[in-house]
Amino acid sequence: MRVAVTGGAGYIGSTLIRNLLAEGHSVASLDNQVKGDYSYLRNRDAKSLMLIEGDIRNADDLDSTLKGTDAVVHMAALSDLDVCNDDPEEAVSVNVYGTYKVLEAAERNGVQRVIFCSSAAIYGVPSKLPVRERYAPHPLNLYGVTKLAGEKLIDAYHMNCGLEFVNLRFGNVYGVGLYTSWGGVIPKFVALGLDGKSLTVYGDGEATRDFVHVEDISRAITLGLTKVGIRGETFNIGSETTTVNKIANLVSSEIEKVTGRRPEITHLPPRSGETKEFSYDTSKIEKTLGFKPKWRLRDGVRQIIEFRLKNQKR
Ligand SMILES: NC(=O)c1ccc[n+]([C@@H]2O[C@H](COP(=O)([O-])OP(=O)(O)OC[C@H]3O[C@@H](n4cnc5c(N)ncnc54)[C@H](O)[C@@H]3O)[C@@H](O)[C@H]2O)c1
Hints:
binds nicotinamide-adenine-dinucleotide; alpha/beta; seven-stranded parallel β-sheet; 2 domains; three-stranded mixed β-sheet
């Protein structure tokens, strides 16, 4: 299969591309590297990989990427909540207008399937837990609003032009990828703890989140790309629900096992725009795509600690 990936230089994108190439697919990636970094992909098989530096809002860049591809995984976005709040105009431009441009280009280039990388952030404060795909979205922050707008745009192209899509709503993604992001709560705790600093928890720490490993996300995307008969479907992708306090304690105790020193946990005032309680019902993706996460949180935390220690020593 020939797959286009927008945002292929990013955390999830580069991990997905590495895995797609390993499975024998060929890939064309489009990324302006505002955040990601192509250098992790440059040593890969050049025959099956095309790395394009460009913007998803540019029709020529998109046409060069999507031409001759069977499917596009659209994950280029301003993916950080704070970055979106700091520059709302750019957030709407990239995440909403950029998604519209990708859909237009998909249509123009006869791409058969679009995988949209959405987020648990679209749910905001859920009406009921665990959250199912059909529950009404109430995003609490601009990032979530832009992701929901992207979903609605894809739905419109599906209804009006018959564009085939699969919408994947990721939980909190963590774990060592090809290029590893240190922005999420787990890697942040690991970095703080190994640097001898205390782990800072916002609010009382009883907020719950669903954490899912980047390798499991990559597998779910591949299933979304290849499974027949799932056009126009939305799936939650999660793995383990836990509180931020439990994550802090887990990271702290795992760091103690390797360094002999247990990092302290301190609390800061809560941040606005964050959901208190969240958990995912993932039965739909299990039943429809046969997807079951392979990574357990404890193993994922150990993996990040080992990775950080190895890379600090270099
Ligand atoms: N990481 C998570 O926990 C998580 C959770 C839910 C959803 N998601 C979604 O998954 C996708 C990938 O997330 P990620 O963690 O890999 O993020 P990331 O920021 O590492 O990757 C996004 C990539 O998009 C690129 N990009 C940004 N603007 C662009 C533009 N205008 N043109 C071309 N490229 C552009 C960036 O350079 C970056 O490489 C995003 O759409 C994000 O919203 C991520």
